[in-house]
Structures
1.
Amino acid sequence: MKIHYFSGEAWEEAYVKAKLPDEEITFHEGSLAAFPELTDPDADVLCTFIESKIGEEELSTGYDHIDLNTAKARGIAVVNVPFYGENTVAEFTFALLLALSRRVIDADERVRDGAFSPSGLRGFDLAGKTIGVVGCGHIGVHAIRMANGFGMKVLGFDVTRNDDLAKTLNFTYATLPELLAASDIVTLHVPYNAHTHHLINKENIGSFKKGAYLINTSRGAVVETDALVEALKSGTLAGAALDVLEEEGDMNDEAALLTAPHPNAEAIRTALENHYLIEHPRVIVTPHLAFNTTEAVERILNTTIENIKSFGAGSPTNIVS
């Protein structure tokens, strides 16, 4: 098979070639967008990561970046890597939560500044607290298990209920309003789609338990930035930990955003509000890092390689279109 592989990390070339020694693979450093002149009508496989947009024009020459309708119309099979970081993201969720609860970043910065005093750095226990897990799928289930290990009371919200799972993992299903009102910590583990866009918003953020904390390792637009900022200012939320930000893509080039001929006012406001979040003393922001471990990346590559092998054998797996 003739394969075009777009990668941001040089080591992947040797890794993939060792797993697919008989295939003709061309490696490109960076996303597909970096190669606007590239055409290859003989290519069998286009292997991309999420930063590559695949639309009608590209097909002519964590899958929402691919125009599935166009792919289907052209008879192109689209496959993905459905599971690779369930425990990985859940572990990072608790890394963020512990950093908040025990003031780890504040303490580290103090010591780096030359002070060695615990004054003003008192935290809080997780044991006995109520954690609300929004989205009880593969990642959410791992988060629930970890919460049980800390001795927390767990509430879960999901569009589908699995009462056997709730019994096995010792958690209680609740409606979203019930969960927000009762939880000391709310952690989000839902996919991003039309139903979860601004799932946490101006209308419901006021129903959070006073002084609660919000953890988001899912997608930025699951949380309405305006609402989050107001909740922090009012004290409804005592703090937050965010691995994702709404409009985080625009944060990479704010000069272009602010000086574009027809600027998007909503995007500009969101970018400015993101700065408020970044500078807030009780908010931790990380650069979309939750999935990023050696093991998770290798699982992504291994599943990708198996997808390619299955496609070559005429039996594609993990098909989304």
2.
Amino acid sequence: MVVTTIGVDTIEITNEKVNTIVQQNIATYDKAGENHYDIISAFIKSIRGSDPNAAVYWLARMIEGGEDPSFIARRLLILASEDIGNANPTALVIANNCFQAVNVIGFPESRIILSQAVTYLACSAKSNAAYMAINQAQETVKQSGDLPVPLHLRNAPTKLMKDIGYGADYKYAHSYENNFSEQEYLPQGISGMKFYEPANNARENELRQFLKNRWKDKYNY
């Protein structure tokens, strides 16, 4: 315990009082401060972790702290693709509708829309397969450089381009059974490279089976 005299006033400082003040400061929400990023991090991780109760609590913390509803809705848009993706494509639709709605309505009513979107996303099946696919594809581009487009996939708007083989031997998928014709779509040198690995959930297992039926052993689906 520390006792300090300021003018005619005596201030008693104890560990208990310091802890109380520290906890009160932590509970505040500063949109420009470190706690802002801690709370949005907890919010996103709660949705990713499929905990609607924690997610809506952190949502309430942001609302009570005066956060811009558009900021919250933008983060939901990102999460819908990054953490849910093709496990539930409707998640992106919900998040996008939420973003549009809160920008029309604003607080306080938009809190209800945000709550609906947050609890839906938290309860959704999760997959980061689309996120991982673009990460790997970009890394491949950085490592392999600007590989040439195969001739049969090139656009051929002029006779000269057609004469040198642009677009030759391209197989129009809709002209074949099941709207599919096996042909090479990747540049030479990375043929058969798989970027999209469907996650183990009901929706993406259907996508995996679709790809396996079409491509057989090429991509090892």
3.
Amino acid sequence: MRIAIFRYEDWEKKLLEEELQGHDITFFEKGLTKDELPQENDFEVVIVFVDSEVTEEIISHFPKLSLIATRSTGFDHIDFQAAKNKEVKIAYVPAYGEETVAEFAFALLLTLSRKIYQSYNRVRETGSFELTGLRGFDLNRKTLGVIGTGKIGRNVIQIAKGFDMNVIAYDPYPNAEAAEKLGFVYKTLEEVLKESDIVTLHVPYMESTHHLLNDKTFALMKDGAYLVNTSRGAIVDTEALARALKSGKIAGAGLDVLEEEGAIKDELNLLAEGHPEEHNLKTILTNHVLIDLPNVIVTPHNAFNTAEALQRITQTTIDNIKNFTEGKEFCEVK
């Protein structure tokens, strides 16, 4: 089959060439967009990442297209209906980073609990080994509230048990088997927020989870509780979090995601092209306030980014293509 891959790293190219021998593969350095459509249009499979907007126009550009393989869990960058209308299948990567993201959540938590950043920064910037202000707290025997007990949430619970933490959890669809196996208890969202020393978020972003943590729900939490978010930024009302941190209601936060992180990463474009209507300036400014707070750790949506996780993404994509071409079951968006 003729296969096109858009935006790749050298190690991916080598792996794809090795694993998909016998297929005609063309590599494109940039993502697939309507402004940079390749002149060649006889590809039967295109491999994309989330930076490619696969619209109806783009799908129509490839008359022989039969499979779009995205190297991601999300697939909202692909026009599903347009693909369906043209009988083009969509393959995705349903899971690749459950251990990876869970480990990162604990990296953020330990950075907060043991003041690792402040300790490192003090030695690096001043050469001082003074311990004043660097006293942390043990995770042992603390209560961890896990919001969302999918694959990532369950991996977080496994790690927490290694610290001998008490784990309680909320999920609209409780997994009784996992609760028994891992030794945690399901409670209502209100109970989890009220009883937890640390709350960690592992739910998808959707209408029902938009601003799940807000002024009202922050008020339920213990005074001096901590928050970790490695899921999606808009699950937390940024302004409400800033108020909770300022008042001391929340003692600290570890955030790998922010509501308007896309805008923060792309401020030069904002200056050059103006401010898109969908971005809330006040939220962006509040995010900058969060970044400057000493009790907040902000990282650039990096929880997924390990060599092993990226290897799993590429290998799953390869397996999807192999199974598709052989008429076998693959990870298909339906």
4.
Amino acid sequence: MRILVLAISAVLLASCANTGTVNYNRMTSQEVAEYNQTVALMDQVYCTEDIRAGSHIRRRHCAPLNVLVDEYARSMNKINALHMGTSLTFR
């Protein structure tokens, strides 16, 4: 019984711990502006409103610039991988 109580207590304490990550999507525009004044350029947060495929509902997506650059590079690599096997010239 004591082991069960200790295990439950440990799980509860672990769930209360702060991981230190910031959820940028929950920040208001004012909070994002204030945050951007305190960090370097590549760490500044930018928000976009995207319409996802299959939905007409706009979703706000906020991320630091370095993450957005990485996402863009990955998507460009996917596009380039698709075009490697095909010829773009017509005969």
